[in-house]
Every structure is written in C-alpha cells, then in structure tokens.
Specification:
Layout: H1 3-22, E1 31-39, E2 50-53, E3 59-61, E4 67-73, E5 76-83, E6 90-96, E7 101-103, E8 106-108, E9 138-139, H2 141-147, H3 153-157, E10 164-168, E11 177-181, E12 194-197, E13 200-202, E14 227-233, H4 237-242, E15 250-255, E16 265-277, E17 285-288, H5 291-294, E18 311-314, H6 316-319, E19 326-338, E20 342-354, E21 361-376, E22 379-393, H7 404-409, H8 434-439, E23 441-460, E24 463-482, E25 498-521, E26 527-552, E27 563-588, E28 592-603, E29 613-623, H9 630-633, E30 637-651, E31 661-669, E32 672-681, E33 690-703, E34 708-720, E35 723-725, E36 739-741, E37 744-760, E38 764-774, E39 776-781, E40 799-800, E41 809-812, E42 815-819, E43 824-827, E44 832-835, E45 841-851, E46 855-865, E47 868-870, H10 872-880, H11 885-888, H12 895-902, E48 912-914, E49 929-930, E50 940-942, E51 945-956, H13 959-962, E52 969-983, E53 1012-1021
Parallel strand pairs: 1-7, 1-8, 12-15, 43-48
Antiparallel strand pairs: 1-4, 2-3, 2-5, 5-6, 9-14, 10-11, 12-13, 14-15, 16-19, 16-53, 17-18, 19-20, 20-21, 21-22, 22-23, 23-24, 24-25, 25-26, 26-27, 27-28, 28-29, 29-30, 30-33, 31-32, 33-34, 34-37, 35-36, 37-38, 37-39, 38-45, 40-41, 41-44, 42-43, 45-46, 46-51, 47-50, 48-49, 51-52, 52-53
Length: 1022
C-alpha cells in the first residue's frame, strides 16, 4: 500500500459516510431539553459534565453554572444520561414535546469508581469501562493543567499512572523524558510507547539529531492546555486495537472539543511564570601545588607563595557564575462554544523558557482549531488541526568536553592564572571558558502540522461506523555551529569554524475504520452481542539530508557554501503497516462480558516474503457486585468487578531489515574512477517479528458507597523471537550485521491504584490517590546462534545481557573482601550482576484538600527503588582525571572506603586481585588482577529515591471579584516543582540519564540535574 492510495481511500470513505448521513428523510419538528447539574452536597454547580441522549449522538457540556441545553431532540420520551469524572452517572427519562422545552435537573453524588465512564477512543463494541477486559486508566489533563506546575505531556504523565515509568533525562530545558510502560520488552527495538492524538498515530521517536547525550522530545510540541484527557492502554488490548507494534503500550491523547448546544462563547486567558533554580552546587576541583607553581614568579594565584603539595581547590562554574536562574514565560488563549448542532474549540499559545545555562532555551508557538458538527442525529463529524513551531537550543553536555559540565568538572586548579593571557584558567580546555562554550550553538527548529478527522455514522440503533483519517507532518531544521577563533578554543580544524546543518522531513498518514453491529436477544433481552470489524493503515515516510562545512572566512557567513570544505549526506525510509480487526463481545445481563478478537497485520519491513501475522485476544469482565447474593457476602463493597484478558503481539524491525543491501563504493577503471558497490548487510530472509504473549487479570472495587475505589492488576508478558544483531565473521565481506530471531524476555508485576474522597462537605473536601507497581524483568533465554549452533554467551560491558537477570543489568568484578591491614582487595574472577537499570518498585501519593470550594491545596509525592545508576562523573573525577578531594585528601574517606573505590595504592602492586588468581578461561583474569575499569562496585550506586514532586495552592476567586474586571471566573495558583529529594545516591540527582535515547543506560556523566521551579499561574475566564 502506498501513500496516494491511502489518501484516495480516505477521501472516498469520508464522502460515503457524509452522503449516507445527510441523505435522510425530512425531520419532524424537534424539541429541547435544558437544566442544571449540581453536586448533591452543597448544591454547587458541576462544570464540564457531559449530558447526552442515549442512543443518539446528541450531547452537551455544562457551563460554570452547571447549565446545559440539548437541542434537536426527537419528540417523545428520551433517556438523558449525565456523567462527569468523580461523580456517579445518572440516567433519567424525559418527555419532550415538539417545539417545546423540557426541564431536567440532576444532582450528582460523588464517586471514585469510574466503571460507567466511556473509554473515548481505541475501543470496539461497548465502550463503557465495565465492559473492558483490560485496565485502561485515564488522566484528567484539563483538571491537572489548570493548577499543577506542568508544561509538557511528560510532566502530566509523571507519577499519575501505575505501570507507566517516566524519567526526565536531564535538567536542561527542552530535553526528553524516557517513558516505559510495564518495563522493557525488547533489546534491539524501541521500548517507547506508541502515541496517538485523536486517533491519529504521530511520531513517537526522538528527533534524529541529538547533541551528545541530550535529545529533544517530540512530545514537547504538545501543550497540556489543549488536552482534555489521556488514556493509557498497557496490556494485551494494545496490539489488537492499535497494531502489533503497540505492544510497548499506547498513549492516546484526546484534545479539547467544542460544546454542542451551548449557545454561547467562552474564553480563557492564562498567564504563567516559572523561576527555575539549578537546585545544586557543582563540585569543586582539587589538586596539589607543584614546585613551579609556588614560586614567586608563578601566575597561579592559588599556589603562589604556598607550600609544595598544598591541596588547593577551585570551582570554575561557581566562580564565573556559569549557571543562572532560568525563567519560563507563557501566555495561552482558548475559546470554546457551539450552537444547536456544532461546537468549536480554538487555542493559541506562546511559551518561552530560558534554561539554567546561557546557551539553553526552549520556545514553542502553537495554534489549534477543533470543530465538531452534528448535521443529523445519526452523523457526527469531529475535525482538528494543530500547528506548532518549536525551537530547542541545547548546550554541549553529557560526555562532552565542550560543555559547561565537562569544562567545569574536569578542569584543574593548577591551570588558574592571573596574568590576563589565554589559558585554561581552571577549565578543562584551552581558552574554553564561559564565552567560548556559550558560542557553540546547537539549534533544532521543528515545524509540525497534525490533522485528524473522525466521522461517526449510526444509521440504526444496532449499526455504527467510525472512520478516522489524519496525518502528522514534521520538518526539522538542525544547526550545529562552532565559531572561527584565533586562539584555539576547540580541537583541530574546528577552530577554523564549522557548520553542520540537517533537514528531516517526516510524514505519517493514518486511516482507521471501525464498524459495530449490536444485537439484543434472549427471553428479556438479557444477552447483548457486539460484533466489531475494521481496518487500520499507517504509512510513515522519513527523508533526511544534511551537509557539513569546515573552514569559515568569517563567522557572519555561516552557510555551508561559504566554507572552504564541505560534504553532504542523504537518507530515506518508508514503512507501511496494514491491519484488519475482528472482535466479538458478548454481554449477559450487563454484568458478564466475554470478548474474543483478533487482528491480522502486514508490515513492509519484511518485504513480500513473510505472510501477514495473526494477533488474537480474549478476555472476561464480570461485575459480580450486581449479583443478588453479593451484598450479603461483602457488605462493605459497593462495586466489585473481576477482569482478565489474554493477548498477543508481533513487533517489526526497521524497514528492509530482512533484505540484503549494498553500499556504494568507487573503483578505479584505468585512470577513471567509476561507481561500484560492496556488500553492506546480508539481511535475513527467515526474519520474523518478535512475538509477545501477555496475561493480565485483576479487579476494580468500590467501597463505602463508591467513595473509595481500588484497582488491582497482575500482568505477565513473555516476548520470544527477540530481534538481535548477529555478529558475522569479517571474512564474509559484509560491513553490517543482520538481525536474527533469538531469545526470550519476561516482564511481570502488580499494579495498585487507590482513589477516594475521604471528606465531602460544603466547606471541606479531601481527595487522595495512591499508586504503586512492581516490575520483574528477566532475560529468560538468549537462545542459539543460528550461524554457529552454539548457545549465545552473555554480551555487553558495563551493561550486560545475561540469562536470569534484568535486561542491561549492571556488572562488575564484584569485591569479595577488603583486607585493610594489608591493603588487599579481592574481587571476583568474572563480571557479575550488581544492580538493575530499571526500577523494580514505584509509588506515588497525591492528596488534595479544598476549603470553602475555592481554596485548593495539592501535593504529589513519588518514589522509585530497586535499581542503580552509574555515577560516571565521580568515577572520571576520581580515577581518570583526578579532580576530587576524595582521592587527594586522606582525611575525607576511611581507609576501607578508599580501598573499595580505588584499590591498593601501593607502588608496584595491583589495585585489585582476582580470587582465583590467573586463569586462561574466557572472561576470567588472565593476569590474576583487575583495574578500576572492571571493579565498579563503588560507582554503580543505588538510585532509590523519594521526591516531593509538586506542591500547589490555587485560589478560585468568587464570582463577584471576577466580575470586577468583566470576567466570569478567575484563579491564581502558586506552585513548586521538585521541592524535596531523599536519596542515598552520591550525585545530585538519581533520575538523570546521560544518554537520553539509550535503550539500556542510566548513567550520570556530566549531566545537568533536575531543576527546582517556583510557579505563578493566573487563569481568567470570560
């Protein structure tokens, strides 16, 4: 399937749906239903409640006063259904006369149980949560973004969904976060979840251009202000509904919509300011004065006139004020409204953030227009368009000597000078201080357009259709610039000036159709079946082009063509996935739901040699609390649902992975150079997808009149036929190694979420949420090398893949004993696992107290444990370029700790001794000794932590005060982010990841730690 055909199919299907919906018989005169929705306690209005006519597409949303209007209602008796998060849904029969208005008021009772909520997207058949056989948690982004100190989707997801682990890679503004859903399940492919916006697949990959370890984030293009909610599909449901590649989880983002039937226009104007504190003190550098530097003629101000061997220190980052207090400024506008059969939502926003380093910033300009239209009660059309321009400027950091962290952490006090001449002056590079580091530019500019159109057509009460078409279009412009300079601030030819520019174009088109046939049968209609069918096509196209110029005449002319030397590059890939879905859902008395479904996928990554793969799914949901006997057995349970589901998945490699490829190469034909080719990758014609099987089961319970909700889930997922790169002997002539299907991985764990409103009165409400999850990730089997027939041995250096341990487990020649008296440190002969990369336990706790309905205090506390981080910064400063007082000052560490970190420092003796002595066995100690590069116990450190993530106070002004400036409402929020950290980790922040896009890496190497933010938010409504 190619892109033009997908576009033609989109147009034809949309036309069919529209024509079918509009060519109906003339409508009879219609009526109207209006009323007010309020909280049963205190009679306060419920804002944002959805009121709908059951069996039709007619709906409305309540305003701040709780009022709603439903127009175009067919005369007769209508079932009016009201739902809102945090309240028990209600349904009432209302009689409507032609041309008249009926009044229907609702008083809703608070409830923490959400089984009657509708899963907005990604479901087939009955969309209520009670019928879903897998847990699909929802994040109410509209509520969170109003008061919480969040500016990105990653911050919204942080510690709010059990089983979803979010780790901010760096404290630099604009950098990415790693998101893992139920842990890693693959070694070679991406472990990141698939992202959808309003049913359209968008680019979830990190930008192709990375600056050392730092990576920009595609999710930063989306503003929480435009999002209504986020649904997370974690279990077996993901692959069947969204495609085989969605086995790593799906994040479905639902943007805000208009208010059909509102008959009014409302606006919101928001202002936000953050003060960004670096929240750490860089370590000082130490060294001992030499004879030359203590002389009276020395230019070193620290050693001149002192004693030889004096330990001196310098902190160039603090001395020069390299770090600053950053700022975030934003203004956002949105308008929302609608008429009798249409609604609209429009927004625009500006975000500017200056990071804590002088060459770090993030800028976002955005606009969105969503329109929903009901031309007929049987037809609903939702359309949305978003335009974003973002600019990310990142400093050189993370394993980089051209960054502030590398320059400041690795410099020596012995290079300080006060004669005014160029030099290192306490920094790592020659003449490479604040001005020279700031002059390096790494700029990524992204232009992004996303469009989504969904048409729903329900011609009868038993037949429905839903068609979604859309596209995600990206253009990246990346520039990396080193200015020309006469003093040699950088290395080699970079001092002549260097410009590297890249362009990336990305297009992804989505077509998704889902139909459903609903049938009721049995003596009293006690059985309901939903037969669903559909297809999905996703086509992705990526094109890259770049050029490098070296040698600039002047820094003002910084284009590639102005350089004395230049070169270019180009790349292209395209991948198409087509899937067909079928599902049967059978319900008995609205309390027992059986599900069986399957999907057939075909992926262009395998060429034409592999048959489409089959992905089945089955599940059960049992609302046992509806049984007559239930209350007498468990009186404290208001609601109890048991659920379980089983499903499979199949993940594809990169496009063309199964094909043999060649690389262009010149050859000499007499005196003329001709173009030829050499073997590149032999491919693998027998390549198959990675196959996963997952079982999920648990329960949802409501206690004490549904004021407390408990959701408990156990999951167990096994992935087989792992795609690993198989190393070929050089004699075969191929320069790249092929994929092979080898090995097995298992992920298992439990998830618990508890939500409740402990107090609900007119003057005081108290809400709490607690979540926790565990993860046991094990590499079960590495398999057999298909080329040699031998078992695959563990591989990896610092991160190792070993059967029986977590993927990428940290390894070291573990210390067996320390003999302080004889300065002897004995270590293991071989590398052993000493820590996990991924947390095995996580928890979060949120509490919110509201006083007098207008003063709200909210706090979020979270923590992770069971994993380790490599403190490579301290390792480098203590063992490679010695800059730490731990190594140089004998009074800082005990003798035992000194030996643990560095080994025996006696001249002529080895640092570490292997316990079995010299050995010729593979992987053992050939000389009977080991070095600090192999004995990493001291620097693979526990990363357990507890963090006070957020704290906020929001005051909602009384209406009379808001009316003084012509507003309908207003609120002011004071908040803080990253306010407290409790950890035994020796570095500043155990959450950082020095290589943001790494699959298995949790290192802290010259990385900017997470910042602390103080936030002021003002929201005005008109």
């Amino acid at each position: 399937m190619n892109t033009p055909r997908i576009r033609q199919a989109c147009g034809a299907l949309v036309l069919v749906v529209l024509v079918g919906g509009l060519t109906t018989a003339a409508e009879a005169q219609q009526g109207t239903i209006s009323g007010r929705v309020s909280d049963r306690v205190g009679d306060s209005p419920v804002d944002g409640a959805r009121v709908a006519i059951v069996g039709t597409n007619l709906s409305a949303v309540t305003n701040r006063q709780g009022m709603y209007v439903l127009r175009g209602v067919t005369p007769g008796t209508a079932q009016v259904h009201v739902r809102q998060v945090g309240f028990q849904p209600q349904t009432r029969a209302v009689t409507v006369a032609a041309g008249e208005t009926a009044t229907a008021d609702f008083q809703m009772a608070a409830s923490a149980v959400v089984l009657e909520e509708v899963v907005v997207t990604g479901t087939a058949g009955d969309e209520r949560r009670r019928s879903q056989t897998a847990a699909v948690p929802t994040v109410n982004v509209a509520e969170i973004a109003q008061a919480a100190p969040v500016t990105t989707v990653n911050e919204v997801l942080q510690s709010r969904v059990t089983g979803v682990s979010v780790a901010r890679a760096s404290g630099s503004s604009g950098t990415n976060s790693q998101i893992r859903v139920r842990g890693p399940g693959t070694i070679s492919l991406s472990n990141s979840p698939t992202i959808f916006v309003d049913g359209v697949s968008i680019s979830e990959a990190q930008p192709a251009f990375a600056f050392d370890g730092q990576v920009a984030d595609r999710l930063n293009d989306l503003s929480p202000d435009d999002i209504e909610s986020i649904e997370v599909v974690k279990g077996p449901a993901a692959a069947t509904l969204y495609g085989a590649n969605a086995s790593t989880g799906v994040i479905q983002i639902i943007t805000k919509r208009g208010q059909v039937g509102a008959g009014r226009f409302s606006q919101r104007l928001g202002f936000e300011y953050h003060s960004i504190d670096p929240n750490f003190t860089p370590p000082a550098n130490y060294a001992k004065c030499t004879t030359a530097l203590v002389a009276a003629t020395s230019v070193n101000p620290l050693c001149r006139g002192q004693e030889v061997g004096l330990l001196v220190s310098d902190n160039p980052l603090v001395r020069t004020g390299a770090f600053r207090t950053g700022e975030h400024r934003s203004v956002a506008w949105s308008g929302r409204g609608g008429g009798q059969n249409y609604g609209y939502f429009a927004s625009a926003g500006l975000d500017d953030e200056d990071g804590t380093l002088p060459n770090n910033s993030f800028e976002r300009r955005r606009a969105r227009l969503n329109f929903n239209f009901i031309p007929h009660p049987e037809v609903v059309i939702d359309a949305g368009y978003a335009l974003t321009r973002s600019v990310t400027i990142l400093p050189d950091n993370d394993n980089d000597i051209y960054g502030f962290m590398g320059g400041g952490y690795l410099g020596s006090p012995l290079t300080r000078r006060d004669d005014g001449l160029p030099g290192q002056d306490g920094w790592f590079g020659f003449a490479r201080q604040v001005e020279a580091i700031t002059a390096i530019e790494n700029v990524l500019q992204t232009h992004r357009s996303t469009v989504a159109i969904t048409a729903k057509y329900d011609p009868t009460s038993w037949l429905s259709h839903r068609l979604t078409v859309g596209a995600d279009l990206l253009r990246d412009e990346q520039v990396r610039f080193y200015p020309r300079n006469p003093v040699g601030q950088y290395a080699g030819a970079l001092n002549t000036g260097s410009v590297d520019e890249g362009r990336l174009g990305f297009e992804r088109y989505t077509v998704n159709y889902l139909g459903n046939i609903r049938t009721t049968f049995g003596g009293s209609g006690q059985f309901v079946s939903n037969v669903s069918f559909g297809f999905q096509a996703i086509d992705s196209r990526t094109e890259t082009v770049g050029a490098t110029g070296l040698g600039l005449t002047t820094n003002a002319a910084r284009v590639i063509s102005a350089a004395s030397q230049n070169s270019g590059r180009q790349g292209f890939s395209q991948q198409t996935t087509v899937g067909y879905l079928g599902q049967l859902q059978l319900a008995y008395q609205d309390r027992i739901f059986l599900l069986a479904g399957a999907r057939v996928d075909d992926n262009s990554a395998f060429g034409e040699g592999l048959d489409p793969y089959f992905v089945p799914r089955a599940g059960l949901s049992y609302l046992i609390s509806n049984e007559p006997f239930f209350r007498s057995i468990l009186p404290f349970f208001t609601t109890l649902r048991l659920r379980g589901t089983w499903g499979t998945s199949a993940r594809s490699p990169t496009p063309g992975a199964s094909l043999q490829t060649l690389a262009a190469a010149p050859y000499a034909n007499v005196t003329v150079s001709e173009s030829g080719a050499i073997p590149l990758n032999p491919g693998n014609p027998d390549l198959k997808p990675e196959r996963g099987t997952e079982v999920e089961y648990g329960f949802d319970a409501g206690l004490f009149s549904d004021r407390l909700a408990v959701e408990f889930t156990v999951f167990d997922k096994t992935t087989k036929d792992l795609l690993l790169v198989r190393t070929l002997p050089p004699s075969l002539g191929f320069t790249a190694n092929p994929f092979a299907n080898i090995g097995e991985v298992n992920n298992r764990g439990v998830e618990l979420a508890v939500n409740g409103r402990l107090i609900n009165s007119r003057r005081l409400t108290w809400d709490v949420r607690f979540g926790m999850n565990t993860l046991r990730n094990v590499l079960v089997d590495l398999g057999v090398d298909p080329g040699t027939g031998e078992d695959i041995a563990p591989f990896g250096t610092t991160n190792r893949f070993t059967e029986g341990f977590q993927l990428g487990t940290w390894v070291s020649k573990r210390i067996r004993s320390i003999d302080v008296e004889n300065s002897r440190v004995t270590v293991a002969d071989t590398l052993e696992s000493i820590g996990n990369v991924f947390p095995t336990r996580e928890f979060n706790f949120t509490t919110s107290v509201t006083l007098f309905r207008n003063l709200r205090l909210t706090g979020l506390l979270d923590g992770k444990s069971g994993h380790s981080i490599q403190n490579l910064t301290d390792f480098f400063r203590e063992t490679q370029l010695v800059r730490s007082n731990r190594r140089l000052d004998p009074t800082v560490l005990s003798r035992e700790e000194f030996l643990r970190r560095y080994g025996d420092d006696t001249a002529g003796r080895p640092a570490f001794v292997c316990e079995s002595g010299a050995s010729s066995l593979p992987g053992h100690c050939p000389a009977g000794t080991a070095t600090v590069n192999e004995v990493r116990d001291a620097y693979i450190q526990k990363a357990d932590f507890v963090r006070l993530r957020e704290l906020s106070v929001t005051w909602t002004l009384p209406e009379r005060l808001a009316g003084l400036f012509g507003g309908a409402g207003a609120s002011v929020t004071l908040a803080g982010q990253n306010l407290g950290l409790w950890t035994d980790y020796e570095g500043p922040d155990p959450e950082v990841i020095s290589t943001g896009n790494a699959l298995f890496n949790r290192r802290d190497f010259l990385t900017v730690p997470g910042s602390r933010r103080w936030v002021v938010k003002v929201n005005l409504e008109f």
